Amino acid sequence: xxxxxxxxxxxxxxxxxxxxxxxxxxxxxxxxxxxxxxxxxxxxxxxxxxxxxxxxxxxxxxxxxxxxxxxxxxxxxxxxxxxxxxxxxxxxxxxxxxxxxxxxxxxxxxxxxxxxxxxxxxxxxxxxxxxxxxxxxxxxxxxxxxxxxxxxxxxxxxxxxxxxxxxxxxxxxxxxxxxxxxxxxxxxxxxxxxxxxxxxxxxxxxxxxxxxxxxxxxxxxxxxxxxxxxxxxxxxxxxxxxxxxxxxxxxxxxxxxxxxxxxxxxxxxxxxxxxxxxxxxxxxxxxxxxxxxxxxxxxxxxxxxxx
Length: 307
Prior knowledge:
Elements: E1 5-14, E2 17-27, E3 32-36, H1 43-50, E4 58-63, E5 78-81, H2 93-104, H3 109-117, H4 122-125, H5 134-146, E6 152-156, H6 164-179, E7 183-188, H7 191-197, E8 200-205, E9 208-214, H8 215-220, E10 224-228, H9 231-240, E11 246-247, E12 253-255, H10 259-269, E13 273-278, H11 282-302
Parallel strand pairs: 3-7, 3-8, 5-6, 6-7
Antiparallel strand pairs: 1-2, 1-4, 8-9, 10-12, 10-13, 11-12
Helix pairs in contact: 2-3, 3-5
């Protein structure tokens, strides 16, 4: 099977509330795709549909060209972690993994390998999950997702509850996994988290994809930052050259044009520049803050609806 995740025109409604609204994207092997959006934006619902747990209202989600439910022994192809707190509280971590190993038909030695890989000690592995911290549950969930040696990983908010060392460990693990040709779809409500790890970024707000592209494409949406000794003359010159500018609060402008194009106009008109550099992705951050503010404003309406 190819290892692509393909989502096409996916929609999910709960009564009058549209949780996922005509969403389309793909996740390719060898890449970490970051699914970024505020809580309640539709990330979890989309991932539950991909993992065959929630039926869509319309549209499709396939993994390697098949719906999840059509894949034989799916956990050997697709590793899923959607809710780390949902593990059986009365069992020990080791028992949970041993049961999964029996179901999957993988050797029991794989359980010890996975426990070691996620840094759960033998003492911790023999503790009941009800006594685990959220970070330990995340590690156990990742061990469970990787147990069948899948080619594809789907992880919903896996950094929740991890300490800084745990987050660094997880990033390294997922980077190595993608570098070996694996496909990773990873969600977070934290822009910084996704920026650091993801090759491709999907931004979702109120159930719709509002931006998508490689990290460099989306950060380049910050355009160019420019300041000069005569900003009004520069604005006129750039306008004449067909380059739109937006004044910045601290003087100067941002523009979608490249630094090279802005520099050429300034040089041709003899305007002295004091700053010329690529934008810093502030537009991505600004868009994300607006999305978060919108979603928070609407939260009372959305109570009771899955995120």
